[in-house]
Amino acid sequence: MKKTVLSITLIILSTFAFSQTKPDISQIDDPKSLPVLFQQSAAEYRALCYQAFNLAELRISCINKRDIKRNHLAIITDLDETILDNSYSEANLIMEGKTYTSAAWKKWTNLSAATAVPGAIDFLKYVHDKGIEIYYISNRKTDELASTLKNLQKLGLPNADEAHTLLYSTESPKEVRRQLVMKDHKVVMLLGDNLNDFAEVFEKKTINQRFQSTDDFRKEWGNKFIVLPNPVYGEWENALYNYDFKLSPEEKKATRLQLLKGY
Ligand SMILES: [Mg+2]
User: Fold this and answer.
1) Residue closest to 204 by CA, chosen among 227, 226, 236
2) CB contact at 8 A, 84 and 103
């Protein structure tokens, strides 16, 4: 009898534990699953990344040797979804029926397991071989520095050291850190998946303001500014919700539907 009770208890406990870690995947209806699959499974996503880095390399190849020798040239690049592919973290959140938290993000970055965005490694090596320095400016937190450097070094990326990696400390806008690099360097290119990676004017702006500033910079895209695709998250998504991070999934869904433009 005791054995039977124990077995039943164990079955109940293991069923409970299983249901905690493995929600019924057929019941999950997360709007992020499609863009995550675009990043992970669409050859079109890979092609867009190669296109961005091919164009970036073409621009760098036009810089003459004298300019590189005389001036202290540098490029500034973002990390997440520009150089590092973190779609695995997003996929895990969906499969576990969870949403983003800073703890879940840290759990992922602690693994130093991000792969490279297609074309990123070859491009950065090309830039480095030309004698141009690379600065990584990311809004990863400073307590993620060690795991981030480990990840970059695993991928064999040049300038993957503390001096070239400027993470988020107290100031949110990247402009402060960009200015630090610009003090001693002539910055010839910026790369990012988020328009905040290029200019402060994009920070916390409405959809229409973001459009206007993008138009104002129209000559820079594909020239000094190289944009990588990120359909999963970013300031474009925050702008949809007017930077209200407290909206429920239902409120977000309603907002998205209201924003659709039909004919
Ligand atoms: Mg990014």
Assistant:
1) 236
2) no
pTM of the model: 0.90
Q: Residue 180 falls within a domain, yes or no?
A: yes
Which tokens in the block code for residue 219? 């000559």
Question: From the CA of 174, how far away is ligand 1's center (Å)?
Answer: 12
In the reported structure, the alpha carbon of residue 178 is separated from the centroid of ligand 1 by a whole-number distance in angstroms of 15
pLDDT digits (tens, 9 = 90+) for 146-185: 999 999 999 999 999 999 999 998 766 899 999 999 999 9
Buried (b) or exposed (e) across 176-207, using 16+ Cβ within 10 A?
ebbeebeeebebbbbbbbbbbbbbebbeebee
Containing structural domain, residue 128: 32-259
Q: List residues bridging with 227 in a β-sheet.
A: 192
* φ and ψ at residue 101, rounded to 5 degrees: -135, 155
- Cα-to-centroid distance, 147 and ligand 1 (Å): 17
Domain assignment present for residue 169? The answer is yes
129 alpha carbon – ligand 1 mean position (Å) = 24
Number of structural domains in the chain = 1
